[in-house]
Amino acid sequence: MKKASRRLAMMGNPMTQFTRRIISCSKVLILVPLLSGCGGDGMQDLREYVTSVKSLRQGHVEPLPEIKTYESYYYDVADLRDPFRAEEKSKPAEMAATGSLHPDVNRRRETLESFSLDSLRMVGTLSQDGEHWAIVAANDKTVHRVVLGNYAGLNHGRITRISDNKIELTEIIADGLGSWNERLVSLALNDDN
What we know:
Layout: H1 2-11, H2 14-38, H3 44-55, H4 92-98, E1 121-128, E2 131-137, E3 143-146, E4 151-152, E5 157-162, E6 166-174, E7 180-188
Antiparallel strand pairs: 1-2, 2-3, 4-5, 5-6, 6-7
């Protein structure tokens, strides 16, 4: 009996041997078709395509342009003024005293001097007994009658001429250096009525 049990132990379990044979056969059946698919020369069409592409005319690439070396600019500031220090100006009080042109700050301001000239419109003229008036509309929807010598605008503008189609004014404006300059401006007749 010892011999029989030894023999069975060497052979192993018959069921296990059967399972092992089935697995081995299955592996062979799976590997044979896979390996047969790898055989043969199925890449001939790919080789022909690569050969045809390589035989095509190759393009010409122009060489890169020559890079110019950068020449830096030398900035000489020795003769320039320091931007962080106040600029020395000539004395404005002396300049104002020497200039004869300046606005009359003691005169009574007129109504149209509270409007900028951009907000005023000439809308017409009136004449009676040789006296000529201009009609001016302000942006606050008020209408004013002006004559020669009246003032209008924010820059001390004095009316110097009235015609049928425009009003001419002479403004006195500061030049920022302490003196005053004259500037001629006009209000044209507004035909939008």
